[in-house]
Amino acid sequence: MRRRVEVLRSGADDHLTEPVDAGELVERIRAVRRRRELLSAAPVTGQIRFGGLRVEVEARDVFFDGERVSLSARELDLLVSLARAGGRVCSRAQLLAEVWGVQGLAGSGRLDFYIGSLRAKLGRPGFIQTVRGVGYRLGVLGDL
């Protein structure tokens, strides 16, 4: 256990112990590829609409049910990531990678904080739905 901690502290992203399970190795490689694709995705421009939400990405303006909503830069980045998914579930790790640039679940407390803040500012807490054990998604009006 101590060796794994030392390896991770020295800058490694991951560590496998012997005997190595081939299936686990393949899935870890796939996970790294997914994270790399997310981080290298082109920035979103233009307008994103979902339900009552409209985000003017370049102007960094947000409107919900026709009302302008004032968000911090981080809140806006988080909302853009959720809106880009178009109702699909975004994992906690995915959101942390896209919005904060961290790998894994380090800092997931801050994600919870910002989700709570977004729910309060949008004024409709059910619009951002929690998918237990996975992450978050935007809900359509019929889901609320």
UniProtKB/TrEMBL annotation:
Q: Which InterPro entries match?
A: CheY-like_superfamily, OmpR/PhoB-type_DNA-bd, Sig_transdc_resp-reg_C-effctor, Sig_transdc_resp-reg_receiver, WalR-like, WH-like_DNA-bd_sf
Q: Name one GO biological process term.
A: regulation of DNA-templated transcription
User: DNA-binding region(s): which residue ranges?
Assistant: 45-140
The Response regulatory domain is annotated at 1-33
One Pfam family linked to the record: Trans_reg_C
Keywords from the UniProt entry = DNA-binding, Phosphoprotein, Transcription, Transcription regulation, Two-component regulatory system
The record's annotation in SMART domains points to: Trans_reg_C (SM00862)
Q: Where is the OmpR/PhoB-type domain?
A: 45-140
The UniProt entry's GO CC annotations, sorted and at most eight, read: cytosol; protein-DNA complex
Q: Which GO MF terms are attached to this record?
A: phosphorelay response regulator activity; transcription cis-regulatory region binding
**Listed PANTHER family:** REGULATOR OF RPOS, TWO-COMPONENT RESPONSE REGULATOR ORR33
Name of the protein in its database record: Transcriptional regulatory protein, C terminal
Q: Which organism is it from?
A: Amycolatopsis pretoriensis
